[in-house]
Queue: 3 jobs
Job 1
Amino acid sequence: MKIVHFSDTHLGFNDLYVVNKEGINQREVDFYKAFSDIIDNIISIKPDFVIHTGDLFHRSSPSNRAISFALKELKRLEDVKIPFIVIAGNHSTPRTFGTSSILEIIDTLKNSYAVYDQQYKKISFDEIIFHALPHINDEKKILTELEKIETSIDLKKKNVLLMHCSVGAYYLMHEFGEWVYPKQKEYIFEKMDYVALGHWHGFGSVGKYKNVFYAGSSERTSSKDKREDKGFVVVELNKSINVEHHRIKLRKSLSFEIDATNFDEELNKLALKDTKNAMVEIKLYNLTPSMSIDISNKTIMDCLPKAMSVKIKREFRNSEDIDTIQNPQSFSLESYFLSHIKENIKDENELDRLMNKAKELFGVMEAENGFD
């Protein structure tokens, strides 16, 4: 028996304010492509079942475009008659009672099963049972639902548990509504043939258990996530279990550091890197305010014209005054820059140049950001 397990596809996610030729956020399009690539692979592999362990959508009220895309792609699975089972994650679970789950739309597909009402549901087939536990906002209910799972195990069939949670504090994402699986109930894992997890965005087995796996996300939702292990899992359940991770191709995410005291030389080296279509993050360190004034973001970005996006962080020498600045706002930094220049620049001509340059730059920032 072969199962494809994937998770945390976050359809509708967008970021970086970069749009494609159609005017759609490029990162949103990247997430759609990752999902479509996984569906392509599934159709090629022809598994017996496909399971998705939560956060199909990035929000509980996704855009029409995200909904339309999801239905179109899942219809492809229906056309080849592969059963699809999905549970709600914390991102796709409404935070208030009385609000319908977006996953209700999955019920319109004949061969798909969505579990989203914050309680356990058993989905049975001839040779296998899927024990589906969606995200639950009320942690007081979790032990009760786990007891229902335990009493529903049928040892004459294969048993697969689907959950969207953290198994141990290490796997916390520090997001609204996430919950930690109770350690005293981990013995249930040993009664399962496979435990399919969602929420953590990296692929891997959990603890001592050889049958408990996070599939990881299909794309990166943060610039801090540099993992390449994005894709899906193929699980074979026969006399023994075999778990194999398949990566999909992603847009490159690159990070570089430039010492401001050697800016020109290091920037020239950076310009030779292959950054085509990549998301690039650059940290400028060892900065003084006067250096920061002379080094414009445009100078850096002009050296990387083929990058999809360039994100620049500035780290100043005197950490007691200011540490790392990202997307600085002029109203919070102008006085700091000007006072620092006055205190540290002794040459009157250089002082006048830097003061005028600083006022000019902060004036441009005010105009661009709409400050009065």
Note: The chain is about 30% helix and 25% strand.
Job 2
Amino acid sequence: MLKHHAVPEAGRPRIRSSVWRNPFRLLLVIAFLSIDSLGISTARADGMAATPDTGVAARSFLASLGESQRSEAVAAINAADRGTWTYLAGDRTGLRLGDLLPEQRAAFDRFLAAALSEAGLRRVREVLAVEPTSDRGGGVRTGPGEYWIRFYGEPVPNGSVMEDSGHKAEAARGAWAWRLEGHHLSLNAAIVDGRVVSMTPFFFGAAPSTHAELGEPLALDDARAERLLETLDPIQKAAAMGIGPAPADVRSGTGARPKMPREGGVKAASLSTEQRAELDALVMSLLDVWPAGSTAHLRNRWKQTDPETIRFGWAGSARRNGPHYWRVMSPSLVLEFSNSSPSVNHAHLVLRTTDDEFPGR
């Protein structure tokens, strides 16, 4: 079997060619790779603007649904389940992807392609592709159909005009949000007046973290953090690894606001120019999951954060082939990774913001 052994500086794990010899995995991979052929524009914009097609694609998907499906898929912007999220297996509120008809799934895929960057779409496919199909009992299942899409408020086009029965009408302005969630995946975004104002909590997981045929979906982030650790001098490394033992999981939690375990770690202010560039790349590569214009405010906030208040911490094995945990803590962004089980084969990665999640709730 082919395995993913190393990740180059700008590289990423790829779907392995050996998958084509397994009919079941072939169908699974095709289901996620098919999004590439849809030709959806993901044009970039300055500021916080959403991609031009996001609202339109969301409305197109909702238009493909039956009345009962739409009632499951859409809730008020301040619905009771808004602000709740989890990466554990189990049912969610919203519409289950496994219940979509083929043409409805195609419309959903077009929405997702419009809402994410090309890199983000690829990474979501990789996470979902390694998710095993299983029945855990009690009605709890995992697999490619066990994800739920939920819209809060009525999606509106991002542009200033829209076609309505052959006539141009001023697009409605307002707030709406969406969530795609299931085991090992949580995507959340909020759009206000055509601008993406929040795209966290954002969670990726993988179990197995390294798949014999499909690679290692979280290798890009984990390998970059390991490289940063390796560049630290003894004093810096002692500070980074002074955060205590590796916790069993990420510690920021699944509440509406993240917990803030700030104790310990090496300060960004003590890093060299090259080390700080590696730290910045670690954060920016996760923001790259979303279209660039959508994250401009977070990128600017990160750049303006006092480096005295940013800390990088690592716990457990000093190499990522052993049980380990790392995090980046700051007043604005919280980034955590855990692959601390003895098998080193169950990885969690989360990005939180401290003050702008679930606006309008």
Note: The first helix runs from residue 23 to 33.
Job 3
Amino acid sequence: MVDAGTANLIIAIFLQLISASVNYIGMTIQKKAATKIPKIGTETGLLKSVKNMILNKAWVLGLSLNASSTFFAAGAFALASLTIIQPLYGFGLIILVIFTRFYLKEKITRLDIFGVIIGIAGIVVIGITAKSLPELPYLELLEMFTNIRGIIFFVVFLSIALVAYIVSEKTSKTTSLVFLVISSAIWTSTQNIFNKAVATAVRDIGFIGAFFGEAWLYSWSFVLLFLLVSIIGIFMLNIAYQNGLGVIILPIWTAIQVVVPVLSGIIVFQEWNAGSGYTAVDIALQSVGIFIMLASIIILSISNGRKKDFSKTLANDITTDNDTLTLEQKEVSTQPDNK
């Protein structure tokens, strides 16, 4: 029979695969909707930008799917370590290939197939090498957040996010987009860490105990931090959607979604330390699985970004050709009749 720890690990992996799938479908719908929304930024105004997004039904649907994926992820984070769970986020891109094939009628390319094969290999490697670690108690988790490692981790990464945003405001368009995506990705990736904190509290002391018992201040603080970094990241990502190419946005954004939470698992929560049960060989094999998954993420992101850019370019070309044709027709119609 499967012991309780292994069963929890299997459930956690399953929940994360569902979360990643739902999240990527939501992101695709949001990206498509963002191109139909008036420009988000200081020119439009914050309140007007929010109103434009909320009034777009497709954008709200995409956001709803993203929000629902959070609950699946919370279950996964409560049952397993971040170093195992977060690399599986790339599975969403595999589902996205299937989704865009049947929903958006896009062709599956050789690069897609190659990325899917690598992604499946990465999932298998991570699954085989995954270890069922003892559940991290909520009080111990709180100590890890507030000790020197936790404080330095968040200060460093959120400082990088702020600097990246400032640089994006002061550089040329392509460079600006890269730094904007880096900033957005760091903000949104930290939401997974706060999500783990809330999920662990609910797991240990129940919903009522977490939000209305003695630990209420910590739980609500993590919820507010989760909402803060999510909102900042969503705004930046949608600005990037409106101004940039998917082939630039997706690989950077998705890779950071994996790297930052995994590093938090290693540095803040000490998931690979000597007492966790991981040997040097286990860590090496787990690292191989993570790198394989990252390779799949980058390949599938580039492939998806190219397809979107091609569609966008094609649409622009058709519009340009139509405008040119209309202009030529106008010129002909305004020429005097010499008959």
Note: The mean pLDDT is 81.
